[in-house]
Design goal:
By secondary structure, the protein is mainly alpha-helical. The protein is built from 6 helices and 3 strands. Helix 2 packs across helix 3. The longest helix is centred in the C-terminal third of the chain and has 15 residues.
Length: 122
Amino acid sequence: MVGDGTDAGVAGYASEVIESGRLAELFGLLSDPSRAGILYALLEAGDLSLEDLTGWTGVSSARASEALRVLRNARVVNSRKLGESVVYSLSGTLIRRLLEVASRSAAGGRLRLKGLDASRSA
C-alpha cells in the first residue's frame, strides 16, 4: 500500500512511493518533542509500555498518553495488550527508516534519549 507505514513493498530507504501529504504528516509528528522522544524510544527498545516510555523519555504519563493517541491515529504506532499492560511498537519499516535517517542527520549519528543508559542497565 502506498504510504500507509506498513512493510509492504519496502525494499530500501527510497523504494516506497509515498504521497507528499503523508510525508509531511510523518515529519510533522516529529515536530513535537514528546512524540519524537516516544518514537525514538520505540526505535531503540522495541515494544514498551506507557510506564517504560515515561521512564525512557522523561515525559509525564498524561503527555505520553496524548502523544501515543496521536501516533496511533497517524498509524505509526501499534498497541497491543500484554497481560495487565498495553505495549506500544512502531508500525512499520517506513517510520523506522525515517527515524533512523532523521537521527543521523540531526545529531551526526544516533540520538541519545534522556533515560537510555539508565533504562538499559536496569
